[in-house]
Amino acid sequence: VADEGREIYAMSGATLFECEELCDRTLACRSFAYSLVQKSCHLKDAEVTLADAARIPAYLDFKTFIKGTQIPAPAPPPAPTPAPTPAPPKSGIAGIIDVYSTYEAFVALNKNTGNARCWGSSSFGGVCGDVNFA
């Protein structure tokens, strides 16, 4: 905006939303100028409108905002991409299988070939040495 009026307060290191809130809470503030690059907020006493002439050339990346107009909230960050499901360990028994289990061990049985694999944690009784595959 070519004529922003007098500066009534300046703040460095602010976000656009902090600048907007500060203007909303400051009685004398009618508009504010904000630089995203510098994170610089400047409260102004002039009541500007959309019809006001633009400052040419513009000063850095400053933009003028009208008090009371809501700045849209930033879009939430996209949800993280879920990690791919890890492939099951190779069992060496490709084909049609059934899986049987107790609470301690698992057995995968290939119905076409009769081959089977057993796995489990020996600390929980998952010992496969005594399994009879016959």
Characterization of this structure:
The protein is about 5% helix and about 25% strand. It has one helix at about 15-25, and strands at about 5-10, 30-35, 40-45, 65, 95-100, 105-110, 115-120. The protein is rod-shaped and about 90 Å long. The mean pLDDT is about 75.
How many strands, which pairing sense, and closed or not: the largest β-sheet? Answer: 4 strands, antiparallel
Which runs of at least 5 residues are low in confidence (pLDDT < 50)?
Answer: none
- Helix content range of the residues, please? under 10%
Amount of beta strand = 25-35%
**Major β-sheet strand ordering:** 1-3-2-4
Judging from the principal axes of the Cα atoms, what is the shape? rod-shaped
Radius of gyration in whole Å, from Cα? 34 Å
Tally of helical segments: 1
Could you give the distance between the termini?
88 Å
Order of helices and strands: EHEEEEEE
* Integer average pLDDT: 75
